[in-house]
Amino acid sequence: MLTAAAKALTCASMFEVSSAVIETSPVLKRSLESTYAFVFVRITLSASAPAPARAKLPRPTPAAAAAANVVVVMVASFVASSVMSWLALTPASVVVDGDPSAFAMYARTWFEISFFASATPIATEPEMTPTLRARAAAPVNASIVGSSVAVSETFAQSPAPSDGGPAGMRRMVTEGPARTVTDNLFKCDVDVRNYRMSPVGTITADDGTVLTVPARTAYQTGPTLPDLFNECNKITPARFADVKADDVPIVEIDPDGEVITGTIVADNYFELYVNGKLVGVDPVPFTPFNSVIVRFKAKRPYTYALKLVDWEEKLGLGMETNRGNEWHAGDGGAIARFSDGIVTDRTWTAQSFYIAPLAQAADVVERGNVHDTTKLGRVHPTAKLPDCRERCFAVHYPIPDNWAAPNFDDSHWPPAYEFTDAEVGVEHLPAYTRYPEAFAGARWIWSINLVLDNLVLARKTVP
Length: 463
Fold this sequence. Notes:
Layout: H1 4-21, H2 26-47, H3 51-56, H4 62-89, H5 100-124, H6 130-156, E1 172-175, E2 179-182, E3 200-204, E4 210-213, E5 227-229, E6 250-252, E7 258-266, E8 269-274, E9 277-281, E10 291-298, E11 302-309, E12 319-322, E13 325-329, E14 334-338, E15 349-358, E16 365-367, E17 370-372, E18 393-396, E19 417-419, H7 421-424, H8 430-433, E20 444-446, E21 453-462
Parallel strand pairs: 6-10
Antiparallel strand pairs: 1-18, 2-3, 3-4, 5-10, 7-10, 7-14, 8-9, 8-11, 11-21, 12-13, 15-18, 15-21, 16-17, 19-20
């Protein structure tokens, strides 16, 4: 028979392991704590009390004792089954320190200890005959052992986080703010209400990689695209018919190609590439919001590629000031329409490469080819914003060198997600709403999370 100390140690070990396993579910954690507390008291009272004290306790009949112990076992088994059901629903999102194999170890240990503890009251009950013990324990023990093996083996075989690409993608994690290296990329010479400075910084990831945030861009070296609407340049035509598209210079991709005209708005910054060549950059990195008109000559087939950046004031944290809140997570979005019939919509591909702010890096779950954070909410105001502030985490992915080239394989990228004007918050944005014909048929696109995804690459091939 186990001593009281050994049993107390067993219960303490059970509590520690199970708490680590289901830390991500407070409801299950509280249920498990209550169950273990009950089991602990039951074992202690039945096995550790002195003989005289035990003699004073009511002596149940053998059948009643068996029934009581079965109830104890079934309570623990119910909690175990609840945990297993929860795991089956969200297997990819449950990891320990980002490692599914570590979780498998915790799961197996927890179920094995649960089996041992569940059987203990039955094995130590003095009033039960061997036959009653066996009858009460065998079905429950068999079910718990079977569930333990099945669940732990499932998680042991779970793949490590992966981008889903041919060679996979490594994730890089940063914590806290970046170091500012450029205070401001752009100065607006006009006094406008919503002007924001455009800082740039660097931050070192957990693998030693030095990253530029919010993104490494061609803003300072690339050609600036012509304005459709730009308050800082005092270009604000009242109607799209007032815009003289023929005066817009043509960027040559192919000498014998057709001339394509396009209009683009991004929240906040974009770069347009065609067949790997940089056509131009957004004139305003952050705000005020602006729109551009572009013309280029290309021969089919050709590939559009957009680098999209939701700029930030809190470098490395994905946050900005909004309505007095200095720790607000901004959101992105881009919309474009071209004269070749191409518009931004879900037929594009779009992948995220910088995700913040996060309370923990494990909030980003690599489900196949999607860097998924939908459990945190995808748009304002439903997004669950963390309160970690300067202690927030960010997850980054390396950008492929040839991502804008026509021969780049984007088949492993997810499709772009479409968003409404209300979700992006552009119902009163004159750079966009003033020219409905310029964006007719186009949809606002981004990667899966409009709020947390700060650097997005999008592509579309025209056959």
